[in-house]
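Record 1 of the preview.
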Amino acid sequence: MRIVFAGTPAFAVPALRALLENPDWRPVAVLTQPDRGAGRGRKLRFGPIKQLAVDAGIDVLQPRSLKNEEARSELAGYRPDLLVTAAYGLLLPPEVLDMPAHGCWNLHASLLPRWRGASPINQAILAGDAESGISLMQMDVGLDTGPVILQRATSIGAEETAGELHDRLAEMAGETLGEGLKRLDEGSLPAAVPQDEALATHAPLIDKDDARLDWNRPAEELARMVRAYHPWPIAFGDIEGTTWRIHRARPGEGSARAGEVLSERGPDVLAVGCGRGVLEILELQGPGRRPVAARDWFNARRGRR
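->
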């Protein structure tokens, strides 16, 4: 089987590793987005997938788009039987979707048709979903709309952050891809099942402003925001006139004016009044500072008075 793998960020690494661990599945080429500048000097750096492919001695293709004939011709030169994508970040035009004999597979971090789009992990936590998972789907021209081949589900922990769930789902994606390829080899791959459009929900791109905490909202919602936006962009809110980034928090019982700081919860909890209940903040970060525990916040507060 001549496989081409397409991916860019760390989420795709376990899937590529799964292919590298089996000589029969070793990709003939890897597609990844062009190198981007990082740091103060904006020096170009390899992405996680490119670095893994280079270390493994696999050809790397980095077109800015697959809509031009030159890029598609270069890809066609590898004569792919199957193209597998995982968080690649570029749309595949119909000419590419039709290129491999077995079509194109995509590993998506949700239980499709729920949370199609760019931020499925974050949206699942924001919505208070009990579970998430990985969908291996046959790609079509729509955004995560193709029929589903395999799905694996997992419960979302009560305090699990988007970063923690991301890492678990990335490993699950590699396992799901391995299962799909094994069953394809054995001739036991199930028929792809069309998605129910009536159940579809959308997971849009996240903007930094999405992570702003409004103390008039229920504490339970704000606690989910803290988890959903960690490690990026990190939830933030105004406390006593200063904007703080909130790293760890939980919903608590009680009542106070929205935005009011309660002192009776003890030195290890910074409780802030919400529209319903209070948000108990355990770790936060001031402008230009390192993250600190609530106890350190109270100590600094006393020092200002």
